[in-house]
Amino acid sequence: MNLQEYNAAVDQHADGLYRFALKHLRDEDQAKDVVQDSFTRLWVRLEGVDGSKVKSYLFTTAHHLIVDEVRKRSRSTVMEEKHEQLRWSEQEQPDLQAVLEAGLSTLPEVQRSVVLLRDLEGYSYDEIAEITGLNLAQVKVYIYRGRMALKEYIGSLDLVV
């Protein structure tokens, strides 16, 4: 790969890489870092990468960087979230609706959907399975896991009530 092919790769694939990273990370700055690191790694291996396979190389590199970033996030604690939880525990009566919405926002999309369909809308397990396209066992598992995550997020009922 030569310098012209590298510059063409930057022009052709930078936006796609950014959208790919942003979709997974949901953080603009981290997505930009992933794109920059991907192109940096391509630059370091410029001689060893075939020009016809540059897109595959870039997206594979970005995928590995995203996985590393997600793993790093899971090991670290965002202090703003911890401070927000402490503030709720120190208040006399926190807003239950805000606490529930914040807890629901931490759930994966599938769990949030089935929990809302069951507990807010009142659908049966069979109806939820039909709506979501999941089988009955999956619906029950996702509802259980979602409720347990909410219970852990909210903490003891003494802090909420």
For this entry, give a set of tags.
elongated; 9 helices; Arc Repressor Mutant, subunit A; mainly alpha; Rna Polymerase Sigma Factor, Chain: A; single chain
- What pattern of helices and strands is seen along the backbone? HHHHHHHHH
The SS-based structural class is: mainly alpha
Gap between N and C termini: 64 Å
What is the assigned CATH homologous superfamily of the largest domain? Winged helix-like DNA-binding domain superfamily/Winged helix DNA-binding domain
- Return Rg in Å: 22 Å
Q: Provide mean pLDDT, rounded.
A: 84
Question: Which range does the strand content fall in?
Answer: under 5%
CATH names the topology of the largest domain as Arc Repressor Mutant, subunit A
Number of domains: 2
Mind telling me which CATH architecture of the largest domain this is? Orthogonal Bundle
Main beta-sheet annotation: none
- Helix content, binned percent: over 70%
Question: What's the total count of β strands?
Answer: 0
- Return residue spans where pLDDT drops below 50 for at least 5 consecutive residues: none
Q: What's the CATH C level of the largest domain?
A: Mainly Alpha
Shape verdict: elongated
Helix segment count? 9
